[in-house]
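Re: beginner question about structure tokens

> Can someone show what the tokenized structure looks like for a real chain? I only ever see the sequence side.

Sure, here's an example I had lying around. Input first:
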Amino acid sequence: MAAIGAGALGLSLAACGNASDGGGNAGANGDPTLTFMLDWTPNTNHVGLYVAQQLGYFKDAGVNVKILPTAQAGAETSVENGVADIGFSKLTDLANADAHGAHLKLVFDLTQKPIARWCALKSRTDIKTPKDLAGKTFVTFGSAEQSASVRQMIRGAGGSGDFKTATAGTNTFRTLTSGKGDFAGFYANWEEVESQLDGPALNCFAADQWGVPGNPDQLGFAVKDSWAADPKNAANLRKFIKSARRGYDYALAHPDQAADILVDQTKSSRLDPKLARASMEKIVRERYWTDGDPTSLPGTVNVAEGQQYLDFQYDAGTYTDSHHRKLAKAPQASELSTNAYVTGKA
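And the corresponding structure tokens:
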């Protein structure tokens, strides 16, 4: 959320190849190959994929998986255009994409609890609650969704809801410490952990605790409807999800080992091993991925919580069509997602 690496943003779609055959290309072992595009630079949100790849879970299931770095156009556009078979996305981003003519669906949900945080430097003693964000400068990438959430948080804390904005640079920490902005969005399981390890210290607020309804952070795997409609692709998708889920379950049971696999498998990203381990430890401790059994990942979309958040954003005017007109009705979580591939009913 805070700082997408400049190198990752510069990658072209052409460099990623074309996956429009929907995983039909066979690898050296004869198994079909699925392409998966990340949404951001590699981090612990993606750890289950790298674990499944390293420990042979995908191979056991009979599929090859090629993990693609994030493209400038984004995972949603890449999946819609057939550059990748599967992409890492979130429900509200699919709502935006489909409002502009895409036909995407979330088929696996990693995060069962909100992980986005809105933070100011802890040294800013004038910011104690979201009410104090009123009139301050929000460091943003220009997201209407984020602005709506921040506005509601300020109002929920008793403030006016008004704030200014500044464009984020490649490093949001640096933007805050330079004094060009007062607060920004981060992820609790990554940048907030980074701040706790290396500074600068942050004072953070969770939107769901300050009046924003539902879960805004249902992050997971998205596919194109027409791609998944092919029985061959649907069968491969089931294998992929089962194996990836197995990888995430391993990460829950062996957080340090999983973090080390992530770092080892993404050497070009130069991840800090200490940060990766601390992030996994927080994920396990705070149960961001689980609901009930702390050792097993549900992987299912909470449609009710998703709809609450989509309704809130629709009322705020976030979703528009390709002509910038407000939609006739709120995007429907039940149409933007399915749990059939996780439950085995697809």
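Each token stands for a local structural state, so reading them left to right follows the chain. The CA atoms of residues 78 and 84 lie 6 Å apart.
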